[in-house]
Amino acid sequence: MNLLMVSSECLPFSKTGGLGDVAYSLSKELVKDGVSVSIATPFYGSIKKEKYNFKSLYKFVVTMNWRKIETEVFHVEYEGIDYYLFKNDHYFNRNNGLYGYYDDGEVFAYFSNAVIEFMKLIPYKFDIVHVHDWQTAMIPCLIKNKFNGEKAFLDIKTVLTIHNPLFKGYFNGDSLYDLYGLDYSLFKEGKVRLENQVSTLKAGIVYSDKITTVSPTHADELKTPEGSKGLWYDLILRQDDFSGILNGMDYKEFDPSKDKIIYHQFNKKNLVEGKNKNREAFYEEYNLEKGRPLFSVVSRLTSQKGLDLINAMMDFALDSGANIAILGSGEKQAEDFYQSLHAKFPHNVMVYIGYSDAIAHKIYASSDFFIMPSAFEPCGLGQMIAQRYGALPIVRRTGGLKDSVIPYDIKANNYKNANGFGFDDYRIVSSLKTVAHAMMVYDGNQETFNRLRLNAITVDHSWKKSSKEYIKLYNSMFPNKE
C-alpha cells in the first residue's frame, strides 16, 4: 500500500502543536507495519538545511488563476519515510511562525495545488492520500472535481483527519476559482459552503472517502450541536464514514528510563524513589519549599484549556499545602496572573512563560499531579506524557481526555486500573472537589497513590494500536483487493 500523508507541519522539520507530532509519529509506526509512507509538507525557511541530505527532485510551475508560482520539491528519507518538501520562499520563508498571516488561505491553496502537480509527476501511483486539517482538506475536492479521470488519480482513496475543528479554512466564494480553479457552483450548491463562506474543512468532510478525528469521544462530540464547532450537520450526513481513533505518543522521545534531560532516570521498578529524587532536585533548582506535593500545568494558556478552572485549582492546591509549576504562554491575562502568583508565593510557585522542552521534561518527571481541565480537547498529549512519567492527570472528561484517563473512584474501589482523576461538568466546584480528592489520596493513602502512579506509567499510549486501526480503515476502502 502506497500512502501519501499531506500535512502543513511535520517533525522533524516543522511543528507548532500536535499535528506535527501526529503526522510524523503515525507515519513512523505505519512504516513498521509494512505501509509505504510518503509525506508532503512545506519547506519552511526555518528548516536547518545543513542537518539533512536534501535532494532536489522536481521543478515546476503552479498556476493559480493569474499567478505563476515557481516550485521546487526536495526529497529526503528519514526513519523509513519518504519526505517531499515543497519550496517557495514567498509563501514559506517567513519570520513569524508557520501560520497567522493575512494570506494563509492563499498559502495553503498553493500548497494543495502543488501537491496535486507533484502527484502527476511522480513515477508511481499512491493508493491513499491522507490529508490533515483545513490547510490541506481541499485536496479530496480537487481530485474528485477537477482531476477525476486523470491517470494519477484513478481509483485513489482519500482520508481527512480533523485535529482542531475550530479552524475551518474560510474564504469568500469568489476565491474558489481564483485559488483552486473550481467552479462557483460548488459554493452555490452548498458542497463547500459553511456559514456563507467557503470552508476547506467542510470540503474535506464532503469529498473525502473516510473522515477521522483524534479520539472516539471527540468523534461523538463533533456529531452534536453543542460540541461540533458548527460541523455536526455535515458530519451526521457522513457518520457511516466518520470515526475517532485515539492518537498515540512517541515513546522514544518520552521515556523516563532513558531521558537524559531529567534529573534522575527511573522506571516502574524504582518509580517512587525516582519521582522523589526528581521532585527534590526540581525544588532545589527553583528554590521551592520541600515536603510538598507538586501540581503542574504544561499548556498553551488559552480559554480552550480551561483557564478559569486552572486558576481555581491552583489556588486550592496552594491552600491545601502543595507547590505548583506552570509552563506555557498565551493570553496576557493568564500570563500576568501566574507571574503575580509567583511574586506572591516565590517558594511555592514556579512559572516559566514561553516554552522550554528541557523544563517541560523536568516538570513531568517531578510532578505528582498534572492539571488539564480543558473546555474541549480533541485528543491531548500532555495527559499521556504525564502518565508516562508517573504524574497523575487531573482532567475534565472531554474528548481524548476521557478516552485516555481512567479516574480513581473510591466507591468503585478501582485502584487496580485507575490512572488519574477526572470530573465531567465544566464547573469550578467540580474541579475543586477533584483536587481535594487527589490530595486526600496523596495525604491519606500512599499505597493507593503509588498504585495509581504505577498504573499510569505502565498504560500503553504508543502508536502501535492506533496504527493498526488506521491500516484497518485504509483496507476497508479496498474491499475487493486481496
Mind summarizing the main beta sheet?
9 strands, mixed
SS elements, strand count:
18
Name the assembly state: single chain
The total of helices stands at 19
Helical/strand content category: alpha/beta
The helical percent reads 25-40%
Mean pLDDT: 96
Low-confidence stretches: none
What is the terminal-to-terminal distance?
11 Å
Strand coverage percent: 15-25%
Placed side by side, the strands forming the largest sheet appear as: 3-4-5-2-1-6-7-11-12
Shape: elongated
How would you describe this structure to a colleague?
The strands form 3 sheets. This protein has a 9-stranded mixed β-sheet with strand order 3-4-5-2-1-6-7-11-12, sandwiched between helices. It is elongated and about 70 Å long. The longest helix has 18 residues, at 104-121. It contains 19 helices and 18 strands. The chain has 482 residues and is of the alpha/beta class. Helices cover 39% and strands 20% of the residues. The model has no long low-confidence stretch (mean pLDDT 96).
